[in-house]
Known about the structure:
Layout: H1 2-5, H2 13-23, H3 32-44, H4 51-59, H5 70-82, H6 89-98, H7 109-119, H8 126-139, H9 145-161, H10 169-174, H11 176-191
Helix pairs in contact: 3-4, 3-7, 4-6, 4-7, 5-6, 9-11
Amino acid sequence: xxxxxxxxxxxxxxxxxxxxxxxxxxxxxxxxxxxxxxxxxxxxxxxxxxxxxxxxxxxxxxxxxxxxxxxxxxxxxxxxxxxxxxxxxxxxxxxxxxxxxxxxxxxxxxxxxxxxxxxxxxxxxxxxxxxxxxxxxxxxxxxxxxxxxxxxxxxxxxxxxxxxxxxxxxxxxxxxxxxxxxxxxxxxxxxx
Length: 192
């Protein structure tokens, strides 16, 4: 499995296995495939050797349910699980919290690469993007269709209103056009 190749703490395989179990539950979109894709995008962005960034990817949605504070609870989990590990635990937790809004400060390299890797799905080819959209809908299965459509369209419009979806030069050059096209098509479908 690709994810095994990205685990940066070889002496903490039990923690890796617990995280893999959390990511392997039936979540809709925020599942093991999402984790694997984020880790692969970190490779693409040249950040796969940054232990704190990679760990933040592993923890960023380790807690995922409909309570609304997943990023905070995932950050607290990282703080607890990584205490005494020798990594910058505060940095890992900060990065996990940053994935709630995906708005790192300019020059926050770690935040920029993690947020870009997390949002890279927006630039996926049509078939993968359709699977992503279906997964998001499964995560909100209890929300009535009209409410989901309105809420999802608002989220997507908010994303499109940003001057750029991505923060790194690489992601802007390689992913931005496809992501904007995917978001625009999805908004049109939601509003039809």
